[in-house]
Amino acid sequence: MPSPSTPVASDTAAKPPADPSSRGADLRERLRTTAVTSGRRFRTAVRPALPAIVGYLIARAINLVVLALMARSARKPFWSMVGSWDGEWFRDIADFGYVDKLPVSPAGKPYWVNVEFFPGYPYLVRVVSNITGLSSLNAGMLVTLVSGAVGAWGLYALGRELTGSHRAATIFALLWAAAPGSMVLTMVYSEALFVAFASWGLLAIIRRQWTTALVLCLLAGLTRNTAFAIVAALGVAALQVVLTRRDDGTRVGLLGREARRPIVATVLAPLGVVGFIVWVGVIGKRWDAWFWVQDKAFNLRFDFGVSTVQWMNKYLTHLGRPIYVVCTFVILLSVALMVWSFRNRKVPLPIHVYGGIVMFLALTTSNGWFFQSKPRFMLPAFTISLPLAVLMARWPRKVAGVLLVAGAVFSGWYVAYLVYVVDTNP
User: Fold this and answer.
1) Could you tell me if residue 394 is left (phi over 0), alpha (psi between -120 and 50 degrees) or otherwise beta?
2) Which among 143, 282, 320, 332 has most CB atoms closer than 10 A?
């Protein structure tokens, strides 16, 4: 037995040094295991939504076929048109960035300038272009295609949460994919990316996943100003928490522990959309620079819907282009769907708030130059089609399928007609 003064080798000293190669092998094995597990979880999560995603992609293919046929008939270019109009602005931002000051005419009015468009979509196009080497046009199409597929998945998940029906949820996503104006989901436009954020954001809100909802609200706000609708939906959900009564009969209140996270999320959620508007104000050297450019350069201003009603009255009572009459009936149908959806008391209030505000923003903005774009402006109001999806889920599959295919054909024709025949922004 050794004495206390006898040195004894420690256990750690007796162990041989670790082999660096074995540590690397362990790390690779852990990463491989994590990747395999994540892949399985992803496949399990996405499998129920595959009919919605595949149907969405079929609708996009139909749109491209219709566009190609219209291009051939009009003897105009085909592929470049998917990046035309707003797509040109987005590609310009992706390639060169924003202007550093607002150009103003001698009359004191701003020229058309790219600060009108939010950065989320074009900067994502830039990232994809830099990684893949694709042109901004092709990178934009890739971003739109993937974003739309994610959006279709989000709509399916939201519809399943609200209805509990796989078939109704699938039709809910496909109604959006085939809606009038949905041809822009096959172009270099930002609606697909916005709906991807908005659909998953609404799902997070009704599930009360406040951090996820906050992040998606911020991203939506960097994509389109329509994000005010999902921010409002988050605020309503937070207010519901504040007004909730506990088991002892007391209200949660603003200072309640349960209300802290939803209130913080609501306060921070507008920073995406408001932050960009403030930045435009800084470079424009006036606080309302973004609204000023919208009004004076792009002829877009808030007028409580007066101009929308005037244009609708004109196209219903006077001879004009048939395409504008079609647009008028699309508006009337959309408003009817909105009223119908509001009658469903089982749907959470934040969902109604979101759809109502999107419709409000689309219909109360004066755009005499872009009256024909109303179907596109209403495209993010996907929640208004929920009762129609539930109804169509009871129909024979062939009937519902034929109507959805017809919708995809119509949406392709509508936008192709505007682009090739009228030569205007869809």
Assistant:
1) alpha
2) 143
The predicted-structure confidence for 328-378, as pLDDT tens digits, reads as follows: 999 999 999 999 999 988 999 999 999 999 999 999 887 667 788 899 999
Number of domains in the chain: 1
Model pLDDT for residues 52-102, shown as the tens digit of each residue: 999 999 999 999 999 999 988 888 888 888 888 899 999 999 999 999 888
21 within a domain of the structure (yes/no): no
Is position 279 within any domain? Answer: yes
Tell me if 16 is assigned to some domain.
no
Contact between 367 and 414 (Cβ < 8 Å): no
Query: 281 and 110 in contact (C-beta within 8 Å)?
Result: no
**pTM value?**
0.89
d(CA 419, CA 413): 10
Domain span holding position 88: 49-422
CA distance to 187, 210, 423, per residue, from 419 (Å): 12, 41, 5
Provide the pLDDT for residue 123.
97
Asked if residue 363 is part of any domain, the answer here is yes
